[in-house]
Amino acid sequence: MENAGRAVADWLDSELDGIEGARVAVVCGPGNNGGDGFVAARHLANRGAHPDVLLLGHISQLKGDAAQNAKILTVGGLEIREIDDPDDLEFMLDGTEAIVDAVFGTGLDREPTTFFRQAFETMNGSDAFILSIDVPSGVNSDSGEVYDGAIQADMTVTMGLPKLGQVLYPGRTNSGVLRVADIGIPTPIMLENADTWLIQPEDVVLPDRPADGHKGTFGTTLIIAGSRGYSGAACLAARAALQSGCGLVKVGVPAGICPVVEDNVPEAVKFPLPQTDAETLSPSARDRILELAAGCRSVALGPGISTHPETQKLVLELLPQLELPVVIDADALNCLAGHLDVLSHRKAPTILTPHPGELARLTSLSAVTVNADRVNVARRFATEHGVILVLKGAPTVTAARDSQVFVNSSGNSGLGSGGTGDVLTGLLSGLIAQGMDPVKACAAAAFLHGSAADLAADKLTPYCLTASDLLITLPAAYKKLVELPEPEPQAPKA
């Protein structure tokens, strides 16, 4: 608690460019978060600030360390004002430069009472800079659910490690700028039970790129994609695979659309495959696909292939016979609905890349339920079916078969448009073809995909971003990682 309170004073001092003489309202709750606030108020006062310590409750409610730090504060000459009526806050916050939110923090799992909700609305209505301790009050630290009236912080100083609710939406929006304070928890203790990780630039390791390498060194991937009207999906996936660093990209598409792919992806090797009358992939393409896959290190299956009954038959027959890592996306996922037993027949790594709607079709859950609990839903699906699951969305999460989950930190709402998933599929398949561990490749692909979107959105805005724009900015996303200095040893990121 002492380290937490000191860290809050440090960050507020830095943000305000000095706090000597500043009037700061420290709004505390009756629990441990309030105790952090009492410590912060003491350190603020020691630095020459004028803290007003406001307790939403009564001193008699305080227990343990919170009660002890309240006593230390009052013995030191600072008054703790008990607030019974949230309307009193508006007067007390008038003229305040900053508000320290020390009301709830972690552990809140229900709607705040009317008393607290009205207090939060008054705090949010102030012009003061709001710094929340650990988690903005009114935000669920585990799920990111935002309860009615929750604090909208300008900055959150969280203790030890980021909380899931600060990287998942909508809680991520309420946290403002997130700062992590080292409060002295030993790294081995944090690592002991860690199963969820936040992927940041320094965590992404690109595949080796030897100076004397050739296209054989950098692997071959096979993209099985497209149907009449969806040739673009095949083109986007193939172009992304080419830009991943993969040595050779093969593309298998229905014969009728092969000329379109030929015109748009000259660097890939194209293979026209048997098709149905609707110009979708035919079951008779199976042996040719297996032949093409024999010289590859990975296969991507699904972008734009349709859910035509004969194409579904091909997918279900093909998957058990492919003896190399397969990225299953888009229509191939929809073809799996009701047939998840096929996955148990695969021996090589299987990577599924659904958005919440596609995962809903594979399970008995609704898309809303999937999105509301994306980390745990992805973890359960991956472990139950022995696959790697890349659940696309805000944010994208990768769940491994051993229950480890990797939460992506890059990306923006511009990714919510057609074709962006095809780019991710090609990029991922290309990274695996270069010899990357499939789980690490998934985390890297998600980060690069989101980083390319961030770079594109800087120029185009998220409104105007298209899948093709990702292919333009993907090289810059790679370059940012290549230029990173060697990271210093540090604690896990989530």
How would you describe the overall organization of this protein?
- Helices cover 40% and strands 16% of the residues.
- By secondary structure, it is an alpha/beta fold.
- It folds into two domains: 2-192, 3-Layer(aba) Sandwich (Rossmann fold), CATH 3.40.50; 202-482, UDP-N-acetylmuramoyl-L-alanine:D-glutamate ligase, CATH 3.40.1190.
- It has a ten-stranded mixed β-sheet with strand order 8-17-16-15-14-13-12-9-10-11, sandwiched between helices.
- α1 (2-15) crosses α2 (32-46).
- The two termini are 20 Å apart.
- 54% of the residues are buried.
- The mean pLDDT is 95.
Report the strand count.
17
In the CATH hierarchy, what is the class of the largest domain?
Answer: Alpha Beta
**Percent of residues in β-strands:** 15-25%
Shape: elongated
Task: Please compute the radius of gyration using only Cα atoms.
Answer: 26 Å
**SS field, number of helical segments:** 19
Helix content: 40-55%
Q: Determine the structural class based on helices, strands and strand pairing.
A: alpha/beta
Mind describing the biggest β-sheet? 10 strands, mixed
Count of all domains:
2
Low-pLDDT windows of residues:
none
What separation lies between the terminal Cα atoms?
20 Å
CATH fold naming of the largest domain: UDP-N-acetylmuramoyl-L-alanine:D-glutamate ligase
Mean pLDDT: 95
The CATH architecture of the largest domain can be named as 3-Layer(aba) Sandwich
CATH homologous superfamily title of the largest domain: Ribokinase
Strand order of the largest sheet: 8-17-16-15-14-13-12-9-10-11
